[in-house]
């Protein structure tokens, strides 16, 4: 069996930099037309100039014939100025601004300590229609790790949407039934990305026969009930839900460690894994909307005009992949993926 769909885009991707960037970018470029590139480098990309320079490095790292387009983002801090937001609006390459609550995840030390500090920037974003992408988790120590997303919605996101009704917002990598319902029933200009791991696995995967560092990402995997709600949302055809892998490569030693990094690498099999989710849900015909239409429509960008083809033809993922001088352990390492990317029609 084969399926052909409009070339998909990845609306949430970590590509890193230098040798690591060179090692991973081709996987995304083989599958996706465009990707929203996360700005959590070290140091973070807080200016349009820095985002432009990073874009050039990504283009340099691409395979020769590739026309993959990196769509750049800025990293919001307590000190982001309205003037920088104006520069972003004038740039044809910067498409969004990313909110990391301070301490929420990998490389978020420069993140926002209190959303109130960012109001001048957020007001300017609402005025100029630049989307805010949220890592939607609070980081207070009294909030349980598994409740961080729901508390973020109640305490941060809902009040923000009330205060700035024009602001376009994407809740990134949603993980709970609460977030799915909030986006589904929510207002115009609110979207959500979903990762392959949160659609395929529940939190048991973190402890399957022992501690599994390669299944650790943030927001952390949740209960089965939440996974079921995410699948319902993704396969519903609702235009607010779209593909964002959150593929986040880390060297193997940084994950298999006393204090292992958060992040799952899925770029090597991303659209293939989503196809598995949609097939299992009996909704393969909805994959194209989720993967190739809804995100572009949300961002006001044209849909891709070329296609990719997937064939039901299981293949084995390598146990490791090269990552500069290191290796990384990809999602489904040494295990099978049911769909295979076969054709590219450009
Ligand atoms: C991401 C990373 O490694 O950069 N990690 C992750 O677990 N998703 C950061 C992020 O998106 O939270
Ligand atoms: Zn991410």
Structural description of this entry:
Strand 7, helix 6 and strand 8 form a beta-alpha-beta unit. The protein is an alpha/beta fold and 346 residues long. The chain starts with a strand and ends with a strand. Helix 3 runs parallel beside helix 4 (119-128) and helix 6 (177-184) packs parallel to helix 8. The strands form three sheets. It has an eight-stranded parallel β-sheet. A three-stranded antiparallel β-sheet has the order 1-10-13, covered by helices on one side. The chain has a two-stranded antiparallel sheet with strand order 11-12. The chain has helices at 18-31, 48-61, 82-90, 119-128, 148-163, 177-184, 196-200, 224-234, 252-255, 270-280, 287-299; strands at 2-6, 10-13, 34-37, 69-75, 94-99, 132-134, 169-171, 190-194, 241-243, 307-316, 321-323, 326-328, 336-345. The protein has a single domain (9-305), classed as TIM Barrel, CATH 3.20.20. The chain contains eleven helices and 13 strands. It binds N-carbamoyl-L-aspartate (NCD) and zinc ion (ZN). Zinc ion binds at residues 12, 14, 38, 246, 248.
Task: Briefly characterize the structure.
The chain has 11 helices and 13 strands. The protein is α/β, with parallel strands linked by helices and 346 residues long. The two termini are 22 Å apart.
CATH architectural category = Alpha-Beta Barrel
Q: Specify the helix fraction band.
A: 25-40%
Order of strands across the main sheet: 2-3-4-5-6-7-8-9
Write down the secondary-structure element order: EEHEHEHEHEHEHEHHEHHHEEEE
Task: Estimate the strand proportion.
Answer: 15-25%
Number of domains: 1
> CATH homologous superfamily - what is it?
Metal-dependent hydrolases
C-alpha geometry: globular
* Quantity of strands, as a count: 13
As an assembly, this protein is single chain
- Under CATH, the topology can be stated as TIM Barrel
Number of helices: 11
Rounded radius of gyration (Å): 19 Å
């Amino acid at each position: 069996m084969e399926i052909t769909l409009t070339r998909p885009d990845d609306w949430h991707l970590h590509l890193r930099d230098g040798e690591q960037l060179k090692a991973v970018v081709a996987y995304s470029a083989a599958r996706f037309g465009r990707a929203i590139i996360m700005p959590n480098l070290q140091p973070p990309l807080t200016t349009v100039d820095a985002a432009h320079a990073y874009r050039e490095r990504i283009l340099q790292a691409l395979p020769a014939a590739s026309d993959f387009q990196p769509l750049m983002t800025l990293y919001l801090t307590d000190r982001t100025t309205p003037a920088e937001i104006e520069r972003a609006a004038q740039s044809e390459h910067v498409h969004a601004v990313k909110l990391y609550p301070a301490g929420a995840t990998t490389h978020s030390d420069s993140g926002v300590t209190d959303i109130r500090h960012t109001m001048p920037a957020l007001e300017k974003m609402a005025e100029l229609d630049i989307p805010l992408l949220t890592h939607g988790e609070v980081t207070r120590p009294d909030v349980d790790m598994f409740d961080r997303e729901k508390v973020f919605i109640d305490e941060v996101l809902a009040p923000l949407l009330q205060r700035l009704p024009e602001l376009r917002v994407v809740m990134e990598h949603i993980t709970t039934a609460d977030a799915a319902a909030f986006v589904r029933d929510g207002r115009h200009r609110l979207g959500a990305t979903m990762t392959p791991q949160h659609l395929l696995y529940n939190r048991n995967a973190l402890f399957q026969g022992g501690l599994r560092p390669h299944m650790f990402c943030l927001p952390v995997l949740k209960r089965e009930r939440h996974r079921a709600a995410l699948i319902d949302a993704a396969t519903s055809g609702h235009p607010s839900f779209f593909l964002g892998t959150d593929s986040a490569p880390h060297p193997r030693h940084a994950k298999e460690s006393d204090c292992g990094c958060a992040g799952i690498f899925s770029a090597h099999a991303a659209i293939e894994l989503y196809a598995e989710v949609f097939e299992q849900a009996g909704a393969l015909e909805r994959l194209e909307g989720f993967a190739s239409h809804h995100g572009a429509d949300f961002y006001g960008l044209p849909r891709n005009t070329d296609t990719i083809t997937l064939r039901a033809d299981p293949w084995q993922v390598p146990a490791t992949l090269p990552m500069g001088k290191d290796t990384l352990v990809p999602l489904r390492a040494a295990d099978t993926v049911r769909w295979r990317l076969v054709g590219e029609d450009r």
